[in-house]
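Bug #77: duplicate submission created two jobs. Keeping one. Sequence:
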Amino acid sequence: LELVPPISPTPMGAAVAMPIFDQNDICSDHGWRFQWNELIAVGSRGSCVSVTDRTRQKKNRYAMKVMPKAKLIETKSSIKRTLDELRFLQLLPRSGFIVNYRWNFQSENHVFIVLDLMEAGTLRSLLDSTGKNMSEGDARFYTACIVLALLHLHASGIIHRDVKPENIFIDSKG
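Kept job's structure:
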């Protein structure tokens, strides 16, 4: 179970509006290393796609947040939120309950943040699929994971102000 900074979630593979970036716009030194797989979500500051690292023998998959610079510079608060998010991700000690930051880079038109991919989706998608049939044991498990993640953030001096099922991601282990 992982907490990540806010982005409007969409179940992986679901039909959504086209992403607000051009896949050919990766002009940086790092861009060539990632193969684009599928759109995960479209949020207020950009899109999130799953990518595969072409440079690794084991083809690891990651989540890549793609944020248009033109969108970020519309308001000072967008720039500050993005820089804060990046700083927190880079400085936050590793935890089994917080999504791991990997890399960031930029092209002429976009900022990219690469994170571990949480392949099981969001807590929202889990709740939608189970409806009212989630067991009490499962509810206790997810609640405990959220508490541990928040304790880790608070111990690092970070307050997550947007905790909701859409911002809680679940890894392949649950």
